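Hi there,

I know you've been waiting on this one. I reran it after we fixed the sequence typo, so this is the corrected version. Both the input and the resulting structure follow.
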Amino acid sequence: MASSFDPSAILAQLTEGYMKLPLVQKILFPVLLIASVSGIIFVSKWANRPEFVTLFSDLEPADSASVIERLKDLKVKYQVEGGGTIITISPPSMVHELRMTLAGEGIVQGGKVGLEIFEASNLGTTSFQERVKFTRAIQGELERTIESLDAVHAARVHIAQPEKSVFANKSQQPTASVMLRLSGRSELISQQIKGIAHLVAGSVEGLLPENVTILDANGSLLTTPEDETGDQLQMEATRLAYQREIEKGFVSRIEQVLSTVLGPGKAIARVTADMDFTQSEREEETFDPGGKVLRSERTMNEGTGTSQRGGVPGIVSNMSNPSPNTLDGPGDSSSSRNEEVRNYEVSRAVSRTRSPQGTLTRLSVAVVVDGTYDSVVAEDGTETKTFQPLPNQMLEKIENIVKSAVGYDSVRGDSITVENIAFNAQSDSFVEQMDAKATQDMIFNAIFRAGPVLFLILFFFIIVRPLVRFIITPTEAELDLERLLPTGLKELEQELDAERSKAGKLPEIDQSVDLEQLEELMAENSRIVKENPHQAALLIRYWLNDGRI
């Protein structure tokens, strides 16, 4: 069974239809076709173009070459921008994986040499070259560490290590210089600058933090010599920060209590705290005469007396009743003494008192509360709100609440002021602004994604559709000609037969030609042709093409 689809017949039909078109349409049709195909191809390429995201930026030439070579091996699409300092890749989903892969392989070194310089060993290296290589390695490692800080974009470290001398009085201390290029509008505080100085000093033997000089990219000196003035200013800054924290604590406590009573945003509190940062120490020693305690005791006894001489040795001298004839000889005299010493300890009390720093000496509290609002509808339908102040009893209660919240002390000289003032109502809240911004971003993203489709639709309705309608729609002249001319030979024959049937028998026609009448007809035809040259041209072309325009 033969297929009904015949490409040659369709092509011949299209060719025949194209050849029947007027000259203007023959020119516009290929132009329209080429423009449509070109527009569709351009929009398709624009919609399907690959999206490139930044893989690395601010690269050194050596690092850029290494990264490009590795991307070629991985067959990843890339672009080089910024004079070779920026490399972008596509698709964006691979950027994080590639960063970790290249970082793990050590391809991106940032132009800095670290301790990996010792991986390549050389037997002919002298001790001086080893020292230079070690200094370069320490400098590179310090640069990488400093650049890891959020506020630092790039860093350069230079270390000067003098040669060691056997003479102690001739030895010099090492020094270091650090230049920082900060990220955007970032700034380093004094604590961060000191941290960098101590980091560099701790990495170099014998280097002191005061011997480290730190500069920024503009040449401004960031490190200052340590002096008593700097310490004093630092201490004052610490005290001021402590005072601000105390005040913030009181403010938060007051607003939290009042927001529960009056509602969110109905109360504003400010507190000024006077602090005493002086430090004093007192030592006191007291004695109690009535409270004595025996500490030690010593007793000594001494005695005195006389001693007699003895008689003749024998029984007689030992008898209890001596004989009167027995004579006592002369004896020695003696004395006795008692001595007692007691030592008492007197009761003594020693107290040391040290007053703490940062003592609160006075509080000044100011509280502003909002009132209530009554809605009033005007005759034109507009609604206005009228402020109504709070009653005095309510203000007294609020003042008592604030006093209790801050620990009011009249002896200390505290002062509290509560005022009822109408707040300035904002037209749009912050949340509404954020929602409007989010909605705007969502609309922009939707428009960006639907841009190619909208372009094709507009291109079709604005360019393609009007041109096609112009090609297939006949002009007014052609419509007038169609009205004057029969649609075909069959229709013409039918009209003639109808006329003959109406007339019946045709009258005899005189074969003679009137020249005057012929001249008049020719003049009339010339006038018509001059007045309607376009229709005359179409009529002649119709005759020449056998009824085809």
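Quick highlight: The two ends are 39 Å apart (CA to CA).

Best,
R. S.
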